[in-house]
Amino acid sequence: MRQAFISTAASCRPSIDILVRVENIRTKKPIYRIDIPEGTDKPYCTSSGLYKIRGEGQNIGIDPTMMKAIILERESEEFVARFKAATDELLKQIAIVHSDLAEQIAQAEFTASMAIEAAQAAEEAAIGAEMMAVI
Fold first, then answer.
1. In 12-135, which residue ranges form alpha helices assigned H by DSSP?
2. Domain membership flag for residue 41
3. In the chain, how many domains are there?
4. Cβ atoms 42, 13 nearer than 8 A
5. Residue 109 and residue 60: Cα distance in Å, rounded?
6. Is position 67 within any domain?
């Protein structure tokens, strides 16, 4: 029985990982406990190609409208995750550019102040030379 449960889970597409435990093993009718974790590759289909979901204690067939909703929900979650990752990367790049520009602006301001000081010194020297020539 245990192998039959595992085989059925493996025949789903994509295959489903399950954990089968046998309880009450010493009695004539052991109890099989099957743990099925929530899947990450939804939706799943049976080996015969039928898509079903579990709801209200029963298996319910998935109609095309429900299938679209499941796929759109999954795709939107993936899109949001990719968009967030791209946004985070873009913000990192913007921070780097901002830092580089701030550094370049500071260097340009320093160079401009040095040039102004040099121009003022040259002007003062020229005035001093002019005054000396007049005397």
1. 64-134
2. yes
3. 1
4. no
5. 71
6. no
